[in-house]
């Protein structure tokens, strides 16, 4: 196995990887091929929200493995129906389209917005407004929707029809009312862009403008969804009802699946044949989704998330007081950003030496994503390991 960056790997070099090969995970911990144990406060980037290899999902997947893995969307898929019913019962949406990833979910949202407006308002009304520092994915349309030049570098010509307005900026809302685009697409907490929560007043004013002008309000909850911020979806904190919600990361607890959940009005944009996916919501992926969502809902996991978030907030405040290199603690629920003075990637590297996995969100933000199942003891361990990391600077 190639874990040394100086060796040539047969895998294309699209990631700068840490020299660690993970071979096992359980709960908040992972192990490498040398037997080292790490506390994983990345959750596979907000994906393993129930911790690694959660029994509730594992059992359902094992059961499904005995029956059928894949058919195609030419036939009814009972697990997919179940998962759609769970998602709509627990959100403001009415109908669901399934795909395999976050980028594909946003791709579906963008296509739905275009189809919907071309039906309702006619050709020529296709613009989707997104925001600076946003991240919506790596396909051509979603990187075009992304408000970061570094993601778009070298991929010109971009897909037309996107404009980026400044995030949390009230003047941008005037612009929105003037331009009357087909849709807005936004993250309620910008994840990759630096863990920046949207201002509630700004969001509610935006929702009002969207409603008055028949602009679809689409929220990218690929990172914030599935309990990450303390509610099943982050939009619940904002008192809004989006027309489209995109989800992926946490939906299958690590099994690849994505979806958009749309209100009936927007969902009518698609007809049979207008969009599709071979794997989207297949029996195995949907089984993972059903097990994940029903566990979160039935076990009242979100009240644990609230409790553990309060505890984590206290510990992060203590760290901030102790270490002046922490400039700000921000985020929502278990999606936390520590703005640091200095090189965040360097700190992440050092943390690995202390058997702690964390992430960055840009050059000067540490991103902390514990599993929703994390305990106070694990948060204490996280704090000790991060202190040790800061002290070794
Ligand atoms: C990760 C992410 C995506 C892309 O998801 P993929 O599954 O990697 O395609 C899109 N939007 C947001 C907010 C994300 O965090």
Give a description of the structure.
- It is found in: Cytoplasm.
- Pfam families: Aminotran_3.
- 38% of the residues lie in helices and 18% in strands.
- It has 13 helices and 17 strands.
- The protein has a seven-stranded mixed β-sheet with strand order 4-12-11-10-7-5-6, sandwiched between helices.
- Strand 16 and strand 17 form a beta hairpin.
- It binds pyridoxal-5'-phosphate (PLP).
- The site of pyridoxal-5'-phosphate (PLP) has 15 residues, from helix 4.
Instruction: Return residue spans where pLDDT drops below 50 for at least 5 consecutive residues.
Output: none
Name every ligand kind in the structure.
pyridoxal-5'-phosphate
CA-based shape: globular
Return the CATH class of the largest domain: Alpha Beta
Proper CATH architecture of the largest domain: 3-Layer(aba) Sandwich
Radius of gyration: 21 Å
Helical residue percent band: 25-40%
Give the distance, in angstroms, between the N- and C-terminal Cα atoms. Answer: 31 Å
- What structural class do helix, strand and pairing data support? alpha/beta
List keywords for this structure.
single chain, 393 residues, alpha/beta, Aspartate Aminotransferase, domain 2, 2 domains, seven-stranded mixed sheet, four-stranded mixed sheet, 38% helix, binds pyridoxal-5'-phosphate, Aminotrans_3_PPA_site
Helix and strand topology:
Blueprint: E1 22-26, E2 29-32, E3 37-40, H1 43-46, H2 55-67, H3 78-89, E4 95-99, H4 102-120, E5 128-131, H5 140-145, H6 149-152, E6 162-165, H7 170-179, E7 183-186, E8 189-190, E9 196-197, H8 200-212, E10 216-220, E11 244-247, E12 258-262, H9 264-267, H10 283-298, H11 301-322, E13 326-332, E14 335-340, H12 344-353, E15 356-357, E16 359-360, E17 365-368, H13 376-391
Parallel strand pairs: 3-15, 5-6, 5-7, 7-10, 10-11
Antiparallel strand pairs: 1-2, 2-3, 4-12, 8-9, 11-12, 13-14, 14-17, 16-17
Bound molecules: pyridoxal-5'-phosphate.
EC number: 2.6.1.11
Subcellular location: Cytoplasm
Protein name: Acetylornithine aminotransferase
